[in-house]
Sequence to fold (150 residues):
Amino acid sequence: MNLFISFNSAKILYLVERYCSIQIKITFAPQLKKNSKPEMKKILSFVVIAGFAALISCGPSAEEKAAAEKSRQDSIQAAMDKMAADSIAAVQAEAEKMMQDSLAAVAAQATADSIAKAEAKATKKPVSKPKTPEQKKEEQVKKVSGGRGH
Fold:
């Protein structure tokens, strides 16, 4: 219980407090009116909240919405173009790799064929033609004369 009393009545209150076991708060100065700052804070917070609400409720204009939609469509188109270019590049790279592999296989086969021909040629004996009787006679003469003629 808060009572605002003067100094003269303080003695009476002291006695009442002592014998009645009631606590009484005594102030010697009159209590002033509360500071007006909390009221200002309430008004300021209300104004700030109203300002945010007004700002949010406005939202983007039709031009801003159209620009946002256009930028979204542009980014989708750019992504699609990039995907198409990447897939074309991948197909071309695969075709180039296949061509290089086939050329390497042809070159390896040609090398193997030429090696096989060379080995076959080296192992083959030259086929001699049957000699005519005149050639046989000339050979015998060369053997006997030691290659000096007849």
In short: The chain has a mean pLDDT of 78. Residues 62-123 form the longest helix (62 residues).
